[in-house]
């Protein structure tokens, strides 16, 4: 029997009260053998944590993490990535399929889940590839992956650009309430050498860019396919105001569409690219101020359902090149909550309950986790909890990251640094020293 008594935390629940729910607000939280229990039953043996002045949130869930194992263990492993996730307050992560080999079979997916269990820092839910080898030609073994519990499928890194393949994938996953997560970017509109947002700055810097239309047009097409198939579509890393308009239009029509935004698209802009620092090279690219404002408004009003990190670690020798030749992607797990607090809470755009909706409840629902994750904490449930000090701030130091990679766009910037304790699957997975 292990007992953990968190004393005096202010619990934010994200709403939806129900019979067994822990009450919102200040209280002692007892976790007995990994499950929430009545604090009145705490024994003298309980380990006590003083959480006076701290806030507790249902454990964060990241819909979009690149863990790089198997294949690029020099950039990240399941262990290093989930350790970073725990430090960021995440109790669970969805692991993208663009590994090497690609996660396009049930065996490959099961292997990644097992690696997550062995590491023990955060629950790892593998995302299955939509197409074999992410080649965009033949459907992967969606049914076999579904049989071992995979509910989310994505060719992320690549867009499923063939309309017929996308239609068939959506039709296929409907049977088990699965979801296709799309990297919405028309490869025919984004040239091979495209590396930033197409606009005034790309012209001045002499870099090839993507027009916003490359994103919005794919979202519009996929929304029609989701309607046609009556199936669930999730849009990865939405980055433009035009895309937000398309999402609002699709939602108004009752289409089963959800969307995520990354922390970096909520704060960084095209202006960062002017120093040609490849740390800021990411896909989709950083966009102008107007897009950032539209993304914040959409996350506040629910047009965008969730925050997802798109944590994309890269080894030095893949990132340290001329801007046009460097790999796409940036780290995100450890700083995500700080950026969301800075951009959405500290600006008054979101309240705490809605923040919990966007970082835990909605991600759990979208991914179809169907476990104790992404729920309002309740007695008897396995504890998934993030205890934070919302006032704590610090300059980010890339060298201190638990990630194996150093492509950290926040290095040197002062941000909220709130996470004190993460409890994943009933156990402490991170505790600030
Ligand atoms: N976001 C990125 O810039 N890169 C991702 C792929 C992706 O999310 O599209 C990666 O795997 O490195
Ligand atoms: Zn992507
Ligand atoms: Zn990604």
TrEMBL record:
It is an enzyme of class 3 (hydrolase). Zn(2+) 2 binds at residues 156, 183, 237. Signal peptide: none annotated. SUPFAM superfamilies: Composite domain of metallo-dependent hydrolases (SSF51338), Metallo-dependent hydrolases (SSF51556). Pathway: Pyrimidine metabolism; UMP biosynthesis via de novo pathway; (S)-dihydroorotate from bicarbonate: step 3/3. This is Dihydroorotase. The keyword Protein biosynthesis does not apply. The active site is at residue 310. Its EC number is 3.5.2.3. InterPro entries: DHOase, DHOase/Allantoinase_Hydrolase, DHOase_cat, Dihydroorotase_CS, Metal-dep_hydrolase_composite, Metal_Hydrolase. Substrate binds at residues 66-68, 98, 283, 314, 328-329. Binds 2 Zn(2+) ions per subunit. The gene is pyrC. GO terms for cellular component: cytoplasm. Catalyzes the reversible cyclization of carbamoyl aspartate to dihydroorotate. Keywords: Hydrolase, Metal-binding, Pyrimidine biosynthesis, Zinc. It catalyses: (S)-dihydroorotate + H2O = N-carbamoyl-L-aspartate + H(+). Zn(2+) 1 binds at residues 64, 66, 156, 310. One of its GO terms (molecular function) is zinc ion binding. Pfam families: DHOase (PF12890). Residues 57-243 form the Dihydroorotase catalytic domain. One of its GO terms (biological process) is 'de novo' UMP biosynthetic process. Its cofactor is Zn(2+).
């Amino acid at each position: 029997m292990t007992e953990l008594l968190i004393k005096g935390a202010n619990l934010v629940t994200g709403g939806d009260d129900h019979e067994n729910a822990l009450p919102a607000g200040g209280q002692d939280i007892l976790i007995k053998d990994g499950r929430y229990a009545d604090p009145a039953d705490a024994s003298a043996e309980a380990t006590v944590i003083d959480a006076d002045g701290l806030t507790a949130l249902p454990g964060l869930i990241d819909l979009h993490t690149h863990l790089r194992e198997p294949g690029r263990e020099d950039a990240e492993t399941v262990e290093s990535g989930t350790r970073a996730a725990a430090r960021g307050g995440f109790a669970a992560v969805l692991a993208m399929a663009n590994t090497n080999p690609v996660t396009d079979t049930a065996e490959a997916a099961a292997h990644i889940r097992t690696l997550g269990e062995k590491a023990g820092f955060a629950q790892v839910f593998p995302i299955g590839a939509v197409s074999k080898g992410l080649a965009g030609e033949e459907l992967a073994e969606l049914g076999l992956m579904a049989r071992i519990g995979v509910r989310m499928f994505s060719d992320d890194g690549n867009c499923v650009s063939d309309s017929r393949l996308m239609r068939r994938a959506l039709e296929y996953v409907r049977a088990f309430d699965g979801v296709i997560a799309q990297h919405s970017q028309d490869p025919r509109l984004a040239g091979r050498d495209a590396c930033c947002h197409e606009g005034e700055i790309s012209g001045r810097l002499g870099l090839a860019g993507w027009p916003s239309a490359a994103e919005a047009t794919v979202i519009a097409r996929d929304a029609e396919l989701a309607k046609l198939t009556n199936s669930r579509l999730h849009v990865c890393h939405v980055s433009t105001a035009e895309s937000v308009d398309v999402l609002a239009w699709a939602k108004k029509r009752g289409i089963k569409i959800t969307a995520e935004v990354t922390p970096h698209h909520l704060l960084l802009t095209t202006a960062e690219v002017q120093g040609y620092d490849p740390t800021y090279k990411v896909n989709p690219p950083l966009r102008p101020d107007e897009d950032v404002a539209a993304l914040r408004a959409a996350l506040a009003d629910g047009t965008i359902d969730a925050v997802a990190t798109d944590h994309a670690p890269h080894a030095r020798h893949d990132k340290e090149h001329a801007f046009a030749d460097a790999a796409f992607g940036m780290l995100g797990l450890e700083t995500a909550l700080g950026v969301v607090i800075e951009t959405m809470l500290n600006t008054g755009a979101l309240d705490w309950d809605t923040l919990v909706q966007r970082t835990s409840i909605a991600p759990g629902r979208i991914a179809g986790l169907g476990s104790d994750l992404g729920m309002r904490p309740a007695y008897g449930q396995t504890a998934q909890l993030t205890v934070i000090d919302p006032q704590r701030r610090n300059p980010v130091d890339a060298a201190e990251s638990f990630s194996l990679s150093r492509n950290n766009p926040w290095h040197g910037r002062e941000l909220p640094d709130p996470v004190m304790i993460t409890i994943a699957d009933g156990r402490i997975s991170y505790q600030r020293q």
